Amino acid sequence: MISFLQKKFFKKKNPQYEFLRKKWTARHKEGYENLFDKHLKKVAASSLGGLMLLSTPGISLVDANHPQDTDSGITASSSKNALLKAELIDKVPEDARKLTDEEDQKIIESINKNLGIKVLAEVDNKRLNRTYGVIGGEQHLYRYPGDTVYAHAKSAQDWAMYGGSGIAPGLGAWGYFAPSREVLTPEIEAQERYYLAVQTFLSPGFSERVREYRDFYKFRKMLVVNPKTGQAVVAVIGDAGPSEWTGKHLGGSPEVMHEVGLAGGPRKGPVLYYFLDDPNNSVPLGPIKMSEEVLASK
Amino acid sequence: MKKYFYSHIIEIESIFVELDNLDLSDSQRKNLASLIDSNLHHTVLDAILEELPEQEKEVFIKHVQIADHDKIWDYLNEKADNIEDRIKTAAKQLKTKLHQDLEEAKKTR
To answer: A2-28 pLDDT, tens per residue?
Structure first.
């Protein structure tokens, strides 16, 4: 009992963390004051200065002294698609079974109407084995020879959120995303950031025309929706998998899992997934929210 | 993902490698990451504002507020010489300090 109470109320502090926290918080305050005193005194006379400081990353370090423990390295992004969720609730079955064509059609209509995009279950007579299944969290993928998990982070907070997912030991189904770091573009970076592994090998007709199907699936855009929350993300097919025995039907990059709200706990859950009809490549990869026209009409 | 207008020219991967060698909880990682980003942001803004005349500072801040990265760079390249190098130098100096802090932290065990 005493041991339990000691653990609960007298947590041993991590001296390395405390050292860095104190040092970097002091530097943060000093940097803030220095910036204000040297450059922003006049600017801050208007509301502009205040606005700028609010946008400073890390400025709201309210919990720096009292960090809240969370179980997962990545937290779920909040849903802005409550209306889509409400529309899907009676169209999507509880268990992640194969949907009928009729069920698919009703769901597709809801998605297209609410998100202002066009998704399809089948393109050029090709379709995946499912449109509704259990997604599991995947690791990052190597984007070019010599890539590291650290190079994936755009900021320290990015590293803190997604770095812990690690990097898969093998390459994705299409090999490297780019031949070298020098030719890595923001578009290619986004493909790895928002990638899916789908069971291409189980799609009807795959084994008869492997090359044709492979070309068809390579980096094809898809929409993934968590029907329980309405959270949706546009991603590309970046890998093949998972194996049937896993009980999962597709995999999502750490960022995809975050955007559909399934990054915590077991890192899996049921999602809808459809091909995105985007011939002009105008829909960016990443989270997608309700279209403004739809929101205005509600 | 939060990407800043200077993210593509600053490399701090070695800091992440060092942090991964420490025994940190998720919340501790997040808090330290937040402090690194804010320190870097202050450092970069200071380096830029040092190079701008007083009357241009507010204009720059407006650009930062709008967060149109292409416009920020167009503006900076027009108003300040070698601004990219100055940002890189300032960030490198901060990185050196952060590495020193990490070395010191290791000794506190």
So the answer is: 566 655 565 568 999 999 999 999 999
Question: Residue B57 and residue A57: Cβ atoms within 8 Å?
Answer: no
User: Considering only CB atoms, which chain B residues are within 8 Å of A56?
Assistant: 38, 41-42, 45
pLDDT of residue A298: 60
Which residue in A20, A39, A72 is closest to B101 by CB distance? A20
Which residue is closest to A43 within chain B, CA to CA? B58
- What residues of chain B, 74 to 93, have a C-beta less than 8 Å from chain A? none
Q: Which of B1, B2, B28 sits opposite A255 (nearest CB)?
A: B1
% of chain A with per-residue pLDDT over 90: 73
Q: Peptide bond before A284: cis, by omega within 30 degrees of 0? A: no
How much is the pLDDT for A41?
80
What is the rounded CA–CA span in Å between residue A34 and residue B49? 12
- Domain spans of chain B, in order of start: 28-107
- Gyration radius (Cα) of chain A, Å: 23
The CATH topology of domain A82-297 is Barwin-like endoglucanases (2.40.40)
Where in chain A does DSSP place strands (E)?
119-120, 132-137, 195-198, 221-225, 232-240, 250-252, 268-276, 286-288
- Cβ separation of B30 and A161 shorter than 8 Å? yes
In this predicted structure, the answer to whether residue A293 has a pLDDT above a threshold of 80 is no
Question: B108 pLDDT exceeds 80?
Answer: yes
